[in-house]
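User: Modeling request: complex.
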Amino acid sequence: MKRLFDRYRQYQQLPPEEVSRELIARRDEQRAGEVVFVPELDLARTAWHEPPHPEAVNAATFALRRRMNAYPDPGAREVRELAAARHGVEPAQVAVGHGAAELLQEACGELLTGGGELLVAWPGWRPLPELAQRAGGTAVPVPVDSGIDALADRVGADTRAVALCSPNDPTGATVARADVRALCERVGERVWVLLDEAFADFLEPGEDSAGLVAELPNLLVFRTFAKAHAMAGFRIGYVLAPAELAERLTPSFSVNAPAQAAAAWALELGDPVVAGRRAAAAHERDRLGRALQGTSLSFAPSAAPFVWLSSDSHDAEAIAAHLRIRRIAVAPGERWGDDRHVRITLRDSAATDRLIAALRELG
Amino acid sequence: MARNDPTDTGGLFIGRRPGTARVHYAEEPEPGTPGRQRLDRGIAAFVLLVETLVCLTLWGPQPAAWLWVGSQVDYHAGSVTLGIAVAFAGMIATLMLTLMLAVRIDAIWKVLRRAGGIDQREGALPRIFAVTAIVAALAFGFWFLILEGPAPSLAPQ
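Assistant: Request completed. Predicted assembly structure:
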């Protein structure tokens, strides 16, 4: 009887799982032998890595569906009023432009016409010297390792303006409010102080210097929505300046309506989102700092979502090359004429994990 | 012509027509003698007949039996609703059991056909189920409309 059943059992079809088992094993073996694809991790750019808040996008979309047949508000009244209320200045002291970069360019053009020096706290925002040159002026990098007094000391007869960032790109160092006030007073009303606060949203509330524009007649503060608000693609920012200068800095052709709508949402309702990103950046910075303890790598205190990292045993090129091999892109310091540091932007937890693993290999 | 030829599908999305996968065995079966294969084919035909009869019970004997059970429940419990509920629940239960049985008989039929030297890939149950349903519907229609006639309330007096 058993032989009879065995004869028929051999004609039974194998279940699909059984048939596929060998194929799956062969595929797994093949995959194990393949080169693992490691996606590139871009830690060289400073724009926020996540998309804008959906409500900001909604605001822009609403504007798109509503008034695109008409020209946008040329004065960006709503954004100006919200920005003015936030920083305690008059709306007339706010000029809205296509990003802080454009407004800095306009400021250079306005203040350096006919020549003159722009003292740039160095290392600082990299395009600044070029903007000064395009405007016909001369950019003079001034190292500020020992403090911003160096800037005031360097002011001469040809100096038209002084430019600095807080938090500074690329170092992440901040300039205290008192120091900004002292600088403005020391350089005198003849010299303008251009304070780039593109990353000021990463400072705790009240630590920025934008409100000083109401008191100091030679201070310009530049703000952007590209960083903490993750709205770089909208190309919108604003400058706080004395009313007469703000009017001259306002672009001839206004910022588009969706960008204005998104910026108005960000100024009115975006604080909790920014607070979350600020906390996330601080968390990743602290994690990186702790992970690098006991290694030759370190970075100075930073308030920005990036660190200015250096090593006791490797130069900037070696660090950047080591990371490049591991498909991690960073901004080497030679862009700022510094061969010891690299600027590394912090992203999310997974990116920091990968960065830490790569840096620990360097030691 | 190979049945798994990708060109059969027009080259679209899948490498072969659905349902044309070859039969995979644990080991290549040893074919029986011609006589044995004839015997297996004969047994397979008998099993197919049994499978057909099992399916046919779904369309007559089983519902009738459960209607009788329902009527008895109605008579003894004095509840038409309970009688109908028992009849329906019973029909569904035996339908499931019958289908489980039919699936097993169908598997045996396929094995017997393969043993009989036929490359049997698909079972016969779906077709038998459909054919018996049609046969039962025609038979019921014939009985209802021709032999028995419509119900008295509808029939011409």
